[in-house]
Amino acid sequence: MFVCFSQQGVDDHWCPCLEFTEVNASSKDVIGGAEMAVKYINDVILSRTELLRGSCAKVQLKKILKAVSYRPNDKLRRFSSTNQDSDRAVNFGEPTPDSSHYRINFMTTPGDALFEASVAVRDDHKVKVNPFISRTNVYGNQPSCISRKEPYARKFCYCKDMKAPV
């Protein structure tokens, strides 16, 4: 797996050294990635504390809105070394092997929450979810049942006692 500037605090999700390509949202890897991101969300809200388990509804994948694959640009994948002591030449070699990486925008139900998640899919189709999932729409009062005591889970929680939107 590649790492792009993570030592400086820039997560792979925001790395400027990546090339993005839109992919079919119904591909096996994208669907598997979105399902694992939803599983991660449910793990946060259903297994961390009694308050979350008792208050938040289990969410389900409603639809995948968009997916892009990303990978380091060719020079980064082939980078080997630099000669800092003399001519500062940059040396390149063979590209490094890597997993497939996707940034997936999806909606969950209940509550029609919109999320963006980065996932890595290995050749054996095992998925690793980047835990920094972004909520891209306003959650409003959906997490009102936990917002004071479990603020870190607000973006994921849809309170069970909420009335369904009409």
Separate helix tally: 3
> What is the β-strand count?
8
Shape, per Cα inertia axes: elongated
Helical content, roughly?
A: 10-25%
Radius of gyration, CA atoms, in whole angstroms: 19 Å
N-to-C SSE series? EHHEHEEEEEE
The residue-averaged pLDDT reads 82
Poorly predicted segments: 1-8
Q: Helix/strand-derived class?
A: alpha+beta
How far the N terminus sits from the C terminus, by CA atoms, comes to: 44 Å
Write up this protein.
This protein is an alpha+beta fold and 166 residues long. Helix content is 19%, strand content 30%. Strands 1, 2, 5, 6, 7 and 8 form a six-stranded antiparallel sheet that branches. The longest helix has 20 residues, at 28-47.
Brief summary:
The chain is an alpha+beta fold. It is 19% helix and 30% strand.
Topology record:
Blueprint: E1 18-22, H1 28-47, H2 50-55, E2 60-72, H3 74-78, E3 79-82, E4 90-92, E5 100-109, E6 113-121, E7 127-129, E8 134-135
Antiparallel strand pairs: 1-2, 2-5, 3-4, 5-6, 6-7, 6-8
